[in-house]
Design brief:
InterPro entries: MetalloPept_cat_dom_sf (IPR024079), Peptidase_M10/M27/M57 (IPR024653). The protein is of the alpha/beta class and about 280 residues long. The protein is about 25% helix and about 15% strand. The strands form four sheets. It has a five-stranded mixed beta sheet. It has a three-stranded antiparallel beta sheet with strand order 2-3-4. A two-stranded antiparallel ribbon has the order 1-9. The protein is globular and about 45 Å long.
Length: about 280
Amino acid sequence: MKTTKFLSIASACLLLTNLYSCKSNNTENAVESKTEISADKLSQIKSLGFSTDNIRKIDEGYLVEGDILLTDDNLAEPSTGANLNIAETEQYRTTNLVKSLPRVITVSVTNLPQVYSDAVNTMISRYNSLGLRITFQRASAGTTGNINVVGFNEGPSGGFITLGSAGFPTSSGQPFNQIRMNTNAAAYGSNPNLLYLASVIQHEVGHCIGFRHTDYMNRAFSCGASGAGNEGASNVGAVRIPGTPSTPDAGSFMLACSNGGNRTFNANDVIAVNYLYK
């Protein structure tokens, strides 16, 4: 999630939201030079439907659309599902979802301040209150969970700062295994707000279990003119979730950009999560 200088929703919600690739109307992703990414790789990513604007190379792969991590495995995996684009603002999922339900997904926190750990606990409570066939719990002390929340420290670049990021489920049905959260003071301040952190983590977990951005077809809805554009269906898929609205949904936890504050499931988000996992 990204945030602009103001706060974009981390994938988009400072971006609150595939790494919450969210931005807030302070965009969450930092802009980085493409010089270290080969022309062939840029062409491959673009051919899969993702914008290469502000793309960043990180250790785990390529960060696109603010908070979405594409690994080399993602780039090599062929598309196996249809892209069902009925309207431009409904909730969307990826082709791959978490399998072997019901199941417990464990979450660990590595080398982060206590407020991040508390925010993970809040996120777990939010998801578990829905009574889904996936539940979340903290991993045992000293062990790494199915999803591990780790930190990185990166300041603003080009008017943006990355709040957090994550990837999509694997083809074998495992949740994406890592969420990266920015510990730089420019991301959340010197005294991060618990509910804001929890909202960004909730968004990134959404990516880990298969949610695309609610406004993936037109990110200008949550990110403003600077975030306008279609993320593209890509080989990960963009399958519309039945029962979700055909008009803009301002409160969705999976909007690409964050509003810089507390944002949890709205009524339509609950419909979407229930459809996939209840």
